[in-house]
């Protein structure tokens, strides 16, 4: 898939949530944002706490703002906490240092947007997003 539009965003969310149910994950919130950080689609499963959507958005927004998945950002933040505290302030808190925020790229590596999920462990959130992206036709393995 090469476009990240409403239909693609909805497909990513549907597939991410299907992956979560297949894994018996805790209820998730998932958001897909475009390259400008604007929400394309989002969903919060029954039972997900009210803050989960805000956390998912912080994961997606942070990944987009820093041009890296939140797993990578968490590793970088551990080694440079003062800088990343400043980044958090500069972004108005819209960044989360836990896996589950994943950039969406086309086959040439151009960033199309990002997906954020929150509700289970960061590892599980990220696994569900990656499965959702693959199922929706975004081959993350092609990223340069």
From TrEMBL:
InterPro entries: GlcG_carb_metab_protein, PduO/GlcC-like, PduO/GlcC-like_sf. PANTHER family: SLR1406 PROTEIN. This is Heme-binding protein.
């Amino acid at each position: 898939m090469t476009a990240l539009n409403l239909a693609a965003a909805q497909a990513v969310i549907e597939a991410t949530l299907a992956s979560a149910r297949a894994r018996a994950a805790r209820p998730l919130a998932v958001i897909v944002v475009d390259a400008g950080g604007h929400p394309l689609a989002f969903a919060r499963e029954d039972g997900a706490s009210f803050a989960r959507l805000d956390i998912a958005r912080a994961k997606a927004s942070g990944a987009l703002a820093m041009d890296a998945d939140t797993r990578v950002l968490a590793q970088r933040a551990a080694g440079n906490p003062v800088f990343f505290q400043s980044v958090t302030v500069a972004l108005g808190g819209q960044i989360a240092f836990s896996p589950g925020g994943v950039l969406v790229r086309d086959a040439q590596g151009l960033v199309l947007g990002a997906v954020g999920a929150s509700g289970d462990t960061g590892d599980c959130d990220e696994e569900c997003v990656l499965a959702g992206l693959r199922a929706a036709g975004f081959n993350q393995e092609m990223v340069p």
